[in-house]
């Protein structure tokens, strides 16, 4: 998986758009960031602290808490290079759901596999 694959995945979510802060690409719903691409092979996604704890426990090589206060609030590094697309998609969609208005989240529903459909 490349940064462009991940960007396409993020932009395929309802209401998502690309922007930038601190010179790095980010992806938002409205003004709320759900993912950034600070460097090749690494994304940062907005999870809740509980979601982050679950991701760290189940995907230790894929996920790591961002250092400092940001990580304590759930911001999580996602090392997507070589990762399974379904796992990455699930984490990106979770981050998107954490910031998206209900009008958008109700347009997607999880399937039995955890995938989201329109």
TrEMBL record:
<keyword id="KW-0238">DNA-binding</keyword>
<dbReference type="GO" id="GO:0003677">
    <property type="term" value="F:DNA binding"/>
</dbReference>
<dbReference type="InterPro" id="IPR058532">
    <property type="entry name" value="YjbR/MT2646/Rv2570-like"/>
</dbReference>
<dbReference type="Pfam" id="PF04237">
    <property type="entry name" value="YjbR"/>
</dbReference>
<dbReference type="InterPro" id="IPR038056">
    <property type="entry name" value="YjbR-like_sf"/>
</dbReference>
<protein>
    <submittedName>
        <fullName>MmcQ/YjbR family DNA-binding protein</fullName>
    </submittedName>
</protein>
């Amino acid at each position: 998986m490349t940064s462009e694959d991940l960007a396409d995945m993020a932009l395929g979510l309802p209401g998502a758009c690309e922007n930038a802060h601190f010179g790095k690409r980010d992806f938002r719903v409205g003004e709320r960031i759900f993912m950034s691409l600070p460097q090749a092979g690494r994304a940062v996604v907005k999870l809740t602290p509980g979601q982050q704890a679950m991701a760290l426990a189940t995907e230790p090589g894929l996920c790591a808490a961002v250092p400092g206060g940001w990580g304590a609030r759930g911001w999580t590094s996602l090392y997507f290079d070589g990762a399974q697309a379904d796992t990455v998609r699930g984490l990106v969609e979770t981050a998107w759901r954490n910031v998206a208005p209900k009008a958008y989240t109700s347009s997607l529903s999880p399937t039995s596999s955890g995938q989201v459909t329109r």
